[in-house]
Amino acid sequence: MIKWLAQRLVCVISGLGLLSACTFHSSQWDTLRSLYVSDPKLSGDFIWQARLGNQVRGVMAINHDNLIVFASEWGDAITFDGWTIRSVTGFDLDRTLQIKAMDIGYQYGRAGRVVEHICSGWLPVTLPHEGWLQKCESEFSYQNVITLDKQGRIIKISQVLEPDGTRLTLTKVK
């Protein structure tokens, strides 16, 4: 299963590289090639669950050009820069969702028009879990959340992706 998933990830990341005109360096290829080793002790560190509406996918996290790409065996891909989900493709969407972070919020493109949401900076929180919270305003109020484990590693990301409030949640599988 891990080998098959790794092969699919190579295809997804290769496609992303072609779309963005990126080239693969040898260290990136070595990382991808190392995924073919099916070591159950290592595989759990990279496995996440992505939920977008009623769509749920198992995804694997891979570092690529200062981003984390979460990719599924079905060709879904999510890019995350450490604070913001930047794009989502797949999930039976009719187009790639692109989110542009600005100094005071996010910019979403939809149906040929641009919509901006005003958001606070990321604020540290401790209850119910440690992490980061961002409060946003548009026609409605919402929060984006990054949850950390006791070692300070990200274990959950929940962010609005579209002006209508469509939310993506990524949860690390234990």
- What is the β-strand count? 13
Q: In terms of structural class, how would the helical and strand content be classed?
A: alpha+beta
Low-confidence stretches: 1-42
Q: What is the residue-mean pLDDT, rounded to a whole number?
A: 78
Number of domains: 1
| Residues in helices, as a percent range | 10-25%
The percent range for strand residues is over 45%
Most strands sheet: 12 strands, antiparallel, barrel
Q: What's the tally of helices?
A: 3
Spatial strand order of the main sheet: 1-2-3-4-5-6-7-8-10-11-12-13
What's the N-to-C terminus distance? 17 Å
From the spread of the alpha carbons, the general shape counts as globular
Order of helices and strands, N to C? HHHEEEEEEEEEEEEE
Can you put this structure into words, describing what you see?
This protein has 174 residues and is of the alpha+beta class. The chain has one domain (2-117, 164-172). It contains three helices and 13 strands. The protein has helices at 2-19, 26-34, 40-43, and strands at 47-52, 55-64, 67-71, 77-80, 85-89, 97-102, 105-110, 113-119, 123-125, 131-137, 141-148, 154-160, 167-172. Strands 1-2-3-4-5-6-7-8-10-11-12-13 form a twelve-stranded antiparallel beta barrel. Strand 5 (85-89) and strand 6 form a beta hairpin. The longest helix is centred in the N-terminal third of the chain and has 18 residues, at 2-19. The chain is globular and about 35 Å long. The model is unreliable at 1-42 (pLDDT under 50).
